[in-house]
Amino acid sequence: MDTLSRSLHDVGLAAWFGGSLANAVSLNKAAGEANDARAAGQVANTGWNRWTPVNAAAIGAHLAGSIGQLGGNSGRLFAQQGVGAMASAKTGLTVAALGVTGYSRLLGRKVNQQTDVPVESGTEPTITTPEEVVKAQRQLKVLQWAIPAITGALIVISAFAGEQQRPQAVRKGLLARFTR
Prior knowledge:
The chain has 180 residues and is mostly helical. The chain is 82% helix and 3% strand. It has helices spanning 2-31, 37-72, 74-79, 83-112, 131-164, 167-178, and strands at 119-121, 124-125. A two-stranded antiparallel sheet has the order 1-2. α1 runs antiparallel to α5, α2 runs antiparallel to α4 (83-112) and α4 packs antiparallel against α5. Keywords: Membrane, Transmembrane, Transmembrane helix. The chain crosses the membrane at residues 142-162.
């Protein structure tokens, strides 16, 4: 069960991070290579709409794996010094990543309401882009980088969590907890 939980956690997080980063780096900019501004909006919207169900599945897998890992490590959470703080940090970052991802999707839906809206790229408006879409794109321009930054931080904390499971770290953490 621990292998399944860890796999769901890691693969889900990897897809959430990697897909969001790839779309920010390439899809939004590649849409600007379309033949005209209206096609650029359609390309960006189509790409993000195709990514959304995959991203949702990745997030779901990550969350299921996270819950499984919490259950599997519940004894260490309270007994080993530092594990509770690490778990709290991971939970906080996960909530932040979920919030930013969800809000980005709401903004994306505003952009997507008009499938042929003129844009320079996925996050760059033209002079004729409707004002509501311009506002959403300005926010998305920042949030497209926030998602991989937060999920990347989760990857780093997950690596740290793995280090906390080494036998010498467990011994040290248990001793520290009981000798305080």
